[in-house]
Amino acid sequence: MPGLTVLVPAYFHPALFPAEWVRLADPRLGAVVLNVHNGPGSARDPVFASAVDRVLAAGARVTGYIDTAYGARSCADIAADARRYLDWYGVADVFLDQVAAGPEALGTYRRISEELRARGVGFIVGNHGVHPDPGYASLADLLVTFEGPWPAYTRMRQPEWATRLPARRSCHLVYAVPPGAYESVVGLARRNNAGVVYVTDGDGANPWGRLSRYFERAPAG
After folding, report:
1. Beta carbons within 10 angstroms of residue 117's beta carbon
2. Which of helix, strand or coil describes residue 5?
């Protein structure tokens, strides 16, 4: 499905899902999110390192998951996580999770973005999960403006500023998608100006805990 790419929240260990990580070594993917243990973990994991090496060698982008706690974590701690991803896994790009959406936190995230850029981070994903204040668009390369279950996605409405954002800079992560609704999700993503998507039947506390059963049907970019 041309015009769409896929970002995969790969929150599963390659020791438990080795075949799934092999399938992620695909340069057509928009990005793979590496989440070792709600971040880079406390030490290098050689199993993860080997899996990530394969993905990077294939030419796919890998982003390191960093929890920002809606602005409560310090800029120094976030930068330290980014450095661990680079040192331990060769991953230079980041996926910032639990990013605030209101204008009051813009200054905090501007400092975070500037610090990460100064340390060589080339690609920043900001996961707001909702449409944030438009000021955040200048701080990240890709904004996750929806993360939620399929029923909520059918009710989502785009703010006017988001319709002007280039589609390649908007990402929607949709879970709990029943088999018959996959094509509807992709159609809604197109109409909602999202150029990056992930659609999964996963549900529960961690819908990203395994590769989506729809992965083979995913847009190839």
Report:
1. 12
2. strand
DSSP state of 126: E
Q: For the residues of 111-138, what is the DSSP string, one character each?
A: HHHHHHHHTT---EEEE-SS---GGGGG
For the beta carbon of residue 25, count every other beta carbon within 10 angstroms. Answer: 18
Q: Where are the domains of the chain?
A: 5-217
| 55 and 21 Cβ atoms separated by less than 8 Å | yes
Nearest alpha carbon to residue 9 among 149, 150, 144, 162: 144
Give the domain 5-217 fold: TIM Barrel (3.20.20)
Q: pLDDT by residue (tens digit) across 144-190?
A: 999 999 999 999 999 999 999 999 999 999 999 999 999 999 999 99
Contact 34, 10 (CB under 8 A): yes
CB burial class (10 A; 0-12, 13-18, 19+) of residue 58? middle
